[in-house]
Specification:
Membrane topology: Multi-pass membrane protein
Pfam families: MFS_1
Structural class: mainly alpha
CATH class of the largest domain: Mainly Alpha
Subcellular location: Cell membrane
CATH superfamily of the largest domain: MFS general substrate transporter like domains
Distance between the termini: 29 Å
Main location: membrane
Protein name: MFS transporter
CATH architecture of the largest domain: Up-down Bundle
CATH topology of the largest domain: Growth Hormone, Chain: A
Largest sheet: none
Number of domains: 2
Length: 402
């Protein structure tokens, strides 16, 4: 089991590295393919679009494929997409390659979450899922800075080759360590889509888009906020982003046990504390040490939300959780785009570089209101355990979601 979870974490590490490394190499990529830096920024959007499209599409196509085989196929597509990115001779083909690399992102996380939760006893499912997510947060500490430095020293293509190598290692580990997990008798695209029609699933997705959008409203503009308000140099901001990753890792570590113990209270507390931290950052961003402490806390609270939302969607989708788990990552990418858009609006409106903090706090509070609404609707239904395609869960676990 530990090696299987490690294999899933390596997959998440590769995904996290390729998703954010492009942002740090935009000047080098722009020079390499002969476009402006703003135009090269569309490559980030291409990857995000791939995630949004690929999560439901590939999960639906693979609805009857055994989980391990589907993980291997998706990991293979991830390797191909990143190798194609490294080989792309011009911007158009690079744009297509980044879209291709993003396609398996959500499905890999969705299928991986279901696989991880089935490797352990039901009362430890959230811990297993959070261990997989650790790979994503560690990527922000190690993978993204390392790939960015590699791309700056050896050329931007070397960063994508490094991610391709990580994908190959993950593919080998998945093949060796993840056990076979047969699909349930009810598996299929119709079952998965029917599960997505559950109103609690819809509310959970809305919480992910709106609540986590508050996190991205600040994260998207963290570097200019620090350079303009805190007085940090451009060369120091990489270390601050790594510090953000440290906070995200700490939040992921505590999210698993807390979610297993009390899912909805963990979600409520995470959103409330995220809102409070974002308001605090509005005042601390002008001083270096308080700003760094607040940044770490924002990262932790942002990650604290991820696991309970993932487990809630898997619970409410009942015996067809894979589509919901995968689509959650489409929701997070929509949160990324929406949060960045709203943060940009308040800056453009002349409200100042610190304004995204307050906008993000407002989004987090709206997400909290949506989560409370789902909780009130759920009060009469105590059948909210995580059910893994035909598996049974003891009655004592039914209290963890409602």
């Amino acid at each position: 089991m530990p090696l299987a979870l490690l294999a899933l974490a390596v997959v998440a590490f590769g995904i996290g590295t390729t998703e954010f490394a492009t942002m740090g190499l935009l000047p080098q990529i722009a020079d390499g393919v002969g476009v402006s830096v703003p135009h090269a920024g569309n490559l980030v959007s291409a990857y995000a679009l791939g995630v949004v499209v690929g999560a439901p599409l590939l999960t639906g196509i693979g609805a009857r494929i055994p989980h391990k085989r589907l993980l291997l196929l998706l990991s293979g597509l991830f390797v191909v997409g990143n190798a194609a990115s490294a080989l792309a001779p011009d911007f158009g083909l690079l744009f297509a390659a980044r879209f291709l690399a993003g396609l398996p992102h959500g499905a890999l996380f969705g299928v991986g979450a279901v696989v991880a939760s089935r490797l352990v006893a039901p009362g430890r499912a959230a811990r297993a899922v959070s261990k997989m997510f650790l790979g994503l947060t560690v990527a922000n500490i190690i993978g993204v800075p390392a790939s960015t430095a590699l791309g700056q020293q050896l050329g931007w293509r070397s960063a994508y080759w490094a991610v391709t190598a990580i994908g190959l290692v993950a593919l080998l580990m998945l093949a060796c360590f993840v056990p076979h997990q047969p699909r349930g008798r009810q598996s299929g695209i119709r079952t998965e889509l029917r599960a997505m029609g559950n109103r609690q699933v819809a509310i959970g997705m809305a919480v992910a888009v709106v609540g986590f959008g508050g996190f991205f409203a600040v994260y998207s503009y963290l570097v200019p906020m620090l350079t303009n308000l805190t007085g940090m140099s451009d060369s120091s901001t990489t270390l601050v982003l790594a510090l953000y990753g440290v906070g995200m890792t700490l939040g992921t570590l505590i999210a698993g046990p807390l979610t297993d113990r009390a899912l909805r209270p963990t979600l409520y507390a995470g959103l409330a504390l995220l809102a409070a931290a974002l308001v605090t950052f509005y005042f601390t961003v002008h001083s270096l040490v308080p700003a760094l402490v607040t940044i770490t806390f924002i990262g932790a609270m942002g990650s604290l939300i991820t696991t309970p939302v993932q487990m809630l969607l898997m619970a409410k989708a009942k015996d067809a959780p894979t589509m919901a788990a995968a689509s959650n990552h489409s929701a997070f990418n929509l949160a990324n785009a929406g949060g960045a858009w709203i943060g940009g609006l308040v800056i453009s409106a002349g409200w100042g570089w610190a304004a995204p903090s307050l906008a993000g706090a407002a989004l987090a509070l709206v997400g909290l209101a949506l989560a409370f609404t789902g909780g009130l609707m759920d009060r009469g239904d105590r059948r909210s355990e995580v059910v893994m395609e035909g598996s049974a869960v003891p009655d004592r676990e039914t209290r963890t979601v409602g």
